[in-house]
Design a protein that fits this description.
10 strands; TIM Barrel; 314 residues; alpha/beta; 13 helices; two-stranded antiparallel sheet
Length: 314
Amino acid sequence: MAFDITHYRNTLVVTDGDWRSELFLRGWKGTSDLERANLSKPDIVRDVAEAFLDAGAKVLVTSTAGANVLSLAERLDAKDMTENEILAMNREGAAICRAAASEYPAKDLLVFGAMGPTEQLLMLNEIEDATLHDAYETQAGALAAGGVDAILCRSFTEIQALSIAVKAATSATGLPVVGSMTFDCGPEQTETTLGVTIPQACAEMVDAGASVVGCDCGENPDAAQAVVTLMRQSCGLPIWVKINAGVPQLVEGRVAYPETPDEFTRRLAPLAQAGANFVGGCHGASVDHIAAMAASRKEPKSKRGSSGTRRRPG
């Protein structure tokens, strides 16, 4: 089902969190090829989807951000994959989330199909516009075939590439499209690494036909409120935001995100006041973080009609 844009401009929705961490908890060993789990381990992908829904998330984002021909070709361990296999990653990733959501009595659960940036930059002439458009058009079509409600173009830093992705997704599917960038540079951390400002981003996304604008995965979640404020000043579309569970730290040689679920949840009210409409978690935001955020909304958790209490993997 296509969501009502007007409705979401005037409400606040809690989305899901960090799929990578949750898949690792369930035994997934992949590092740069998270999307493969949709084909080789659909059971744990389904379990993560259900865990986020049980936590109270109203939006699931498919684990497919890098599942296009261009992105996977950049990874040494994925060069042997066929285009049909790559399309199947998207289609199955979407279908798993769609099937999970369908078991819940709530009628307002949404599935967003994720598409992410490639390493090649248009500004350096490393790739042509038409090649990039074709890759995103194909990926978006596969996500739509799997049953997504919208396409999420996420974590972009190059505005031209995001514009192409949004246009490709719109032409391929006719579904609403979210255009989201990573803002973590500049004096106030309100620019992308390539110098794109928020007014520029919003103007380009509106021109490209985006239904929602957003930001995600900036290293410092403290900057998110300022980003959302500028977005609200720059356009009238609903705003999507996903934040990390604190500033990343190096702990015993591994990157960790220090915020507890309660600390993470305290960020919700300021983001809502700034104008955010969809709020969820990026790196380090576990099922427990999303459950705490959803509980703070004073809404009952979504529960499947046929199941009992779920256990977190130990």
